[in-house]
């Protein structure tokens, strides 16, 4: 007995379908053969009656006179392998070609059919002998006579024996076909179940945290896709875990450095001496490192909110040109320290509907990254232009660029192109999601060694809205965009 499972279901379904089809086909076949044999016997007797009628009544046309004429009629109607009877219209046997003479009148269906003018037919078991027979009867009328019923009775035992043999042969063929189907269905079931068992076993190992396990085997179709998907999932989990470990290591370093500075200067100040200049420098460093810690924590909190769809943005009218000018002022000192020139080229009044603080966070991160990865004595271009119903902003640098391998991962959370430069690896991931919250698109184009261009496309406010003095009709503040 096959235990419950997919294998059993496949075998059972195939078996039931083929068995039902075979049973229906064999029943139809055997009924057709039986009908063919019985109709052949009936047609043979009926044709014999028609031929005798043509000869006996049209050419001889005797006047029946007692038993001598009945005997003559019986002789003409005689047929090999069939018993011929001459009956009156009451069903009484007047003369019989066999030695056996029935004592009672015949009341079978063929008699009533013959009396109604048809060639009657009846198949059944003969009461006196218990034998399966077919009776064919027809009413024959002579001029001036009441008429007689000519009845043929032939045994069906030989035909039934042949039909039984055909039935047994068909049953044997059906059993052989079912056996072959059973073998093939079990093979098919095994070809599906065995890979599934392998996949299940490896998946169980993955569930226990063994993500180095892989599903081996060249599986086809859906099973192959399932195996590839699970292998890819394990690979991505391993990569995510590695990225997470790198992030923990990086963030630990990022937190430790400012905390060490804060602790060192705090101890220095507390140690006494109170040199005004030294104290001032120490307090500035403590303030700077504290702000750096706050920035790191806020970046992590922002990412957490975005991941949980809890980030809310206050919608208003934002002039991208003014926003970029403010960012250039904020980053001017950092760019000047590396002799990097910030250049802005913009259309007039590039207005979008958005959260000014969040959009400033996006572009501040993009320009800061451009400065961080640009060569000294280079330039960064900020270009703003209209494209259809969108305001497009490009941040172009001629820095180190990004390789093709890193380009597909650079927007992943915690990923850092150069871990030595510091940071959490969340800035670009957060920028991507903030742009999407504003119904915009962020694209990255880069060539290693030649520079990077980041394109941000945001929906532009309608022209009539942009030219009005009042506020545009925008969603209410703090509404979360999705």
UniProtKB/TrEMBL annotation:
User: Could you tell me where this protein is found in the cell?
Assistant: Cell membrane
Q: Which keywords does UniProt give here?
A: ATP-binding, Cell membrane, Kinase, Membrane, Nucleotide-binding, Phosphoprotein, Transferase, Transmembrane, Transmembrane helix, Two-component regulatory system
* Membrane spanning residue stretches: 12-33, 163-184
What highest taxon heads this organism's lineage? Bacteria
- Start and end of every Histidine kinase domain? 250-462
The residues forming a coiled coil are none
* Catalyzed chemical reaction(s): ATP + protein L-histidine = ADP + protein N-phospho-L-histidine
Q: Which GO terms describe its cellular component?
A: plasma membrane
Lipid bilayer topology: Multi-pass membrane protein
Q: Which GO terms describe its molecular function?
A: ATP binding; phosphorelay sensor kinase activity
Q: Where is the HAMP domain positioned along the sequence?
A: 190-242
So what EC number does this one have?
2.7.13.3
What enzyme category does the UniProt record give? Answer: transferase
Xref: PANTHER family: HYBRID SIGNAL TRANSDUCTION HISTIDINE KINASE C, TWO-COMPONENT HISTIDINE KINASE
Return the protein name: histidine kinase
Give the species this sequence originates from.
Paenibacillus rhizosphaerae
């Amino acid at each position: 007995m096959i235990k419950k499972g997919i294998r059993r279901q496949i075998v059972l379904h195939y078996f039931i379908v083929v068995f039902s089809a075979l049973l229906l086909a064999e029943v139809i076949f055997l009924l057709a053969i039986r009908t063919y044999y019985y109709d052949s016997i009936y047609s043979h007797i009926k044709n014999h009656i028609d031929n005798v009628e043509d000869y006996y009544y049209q050419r001889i046309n005797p006047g029946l006179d007692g038993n001598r004429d009945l005997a003559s009629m019986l002789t003409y109607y005689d047929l090999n392998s069939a018993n011929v009877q001459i009956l009156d219209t009451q069903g009484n046997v007047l003369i019989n070609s066999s030695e056996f003479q029935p004592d009672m009148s015949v009341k079978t269906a063929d008699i009533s059919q013959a009396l109604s003018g048809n060639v009657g037919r009846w198949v059944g078991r003969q009461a006196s002998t218990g034998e399966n027979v077919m009776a064919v009867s027809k009413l024959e009328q002579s001029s001036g006579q009441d008429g007689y019923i000519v009845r043929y009775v032939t045994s069906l035992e030989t035909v039934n024996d042949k039909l039984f043999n055909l039935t047994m042969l068909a049953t044997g063929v059906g059993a052989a076909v079912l056996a072959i189907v059973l073998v093939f269905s079990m093979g098919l079931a095994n070809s599906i179940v065995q890979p599934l068992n392998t996949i299940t076993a490896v998946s169980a190992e993955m569930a226990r945290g063994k993500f180095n396990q892989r599903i081996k085997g060249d599986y086809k179709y859906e099973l192959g896709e399932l195996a590839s998907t699970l292998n890819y999932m394990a690979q991505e989990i391993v990569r995510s875990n590695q990225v997470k470990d790198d992030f923990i290591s990086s963030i630990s370093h990022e937190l430790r450095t400012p905390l060490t500075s804060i602790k060192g200067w705090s101890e220095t100040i507390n140690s006494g001496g109170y040199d005004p200049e030294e104290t001032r420098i120490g307090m500035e460093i403590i303030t700077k490192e504290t702000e750096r810690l706050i920035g790191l924590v806020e970046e992590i909190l922002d990412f957490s909110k975005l991941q949980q769809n809890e980030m809310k943005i206050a919608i208003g009218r934002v002039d991208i040109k003014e926003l970029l000018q403010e960012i250039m002022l904020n980053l001017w000192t950092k760019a000047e320290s590396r002799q990097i020139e910030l250049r802005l080229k913009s259309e007039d009044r590039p207005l979008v509907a958005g959260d000014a603080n969040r959009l400033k966070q996006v572009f501040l991160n993009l320009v800061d990254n451009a400065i961080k990865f640009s060569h000294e004595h280079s330039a960064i271009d900020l270009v703003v232009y209209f494209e259809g119903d969108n305001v497009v902003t490009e941040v172009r640098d001629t820095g180190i660029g990004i390789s093709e391998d890193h380009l597909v991962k650079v927007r992943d959370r915690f990923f850092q192109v150069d871990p030595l430069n510091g940071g959490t690896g969340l800035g670009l991931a957060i920028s991507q999601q903030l742009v999407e919250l504003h119904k915009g698109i962020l694209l990255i184009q880069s060539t290693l060694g030649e520079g990077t261009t980041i394109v941000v496309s945001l929906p532009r406010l309608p022209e009539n809205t942009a030219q009005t003095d009042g506020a545009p009709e925008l969603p209410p503040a703090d509404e979360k965009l999705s």
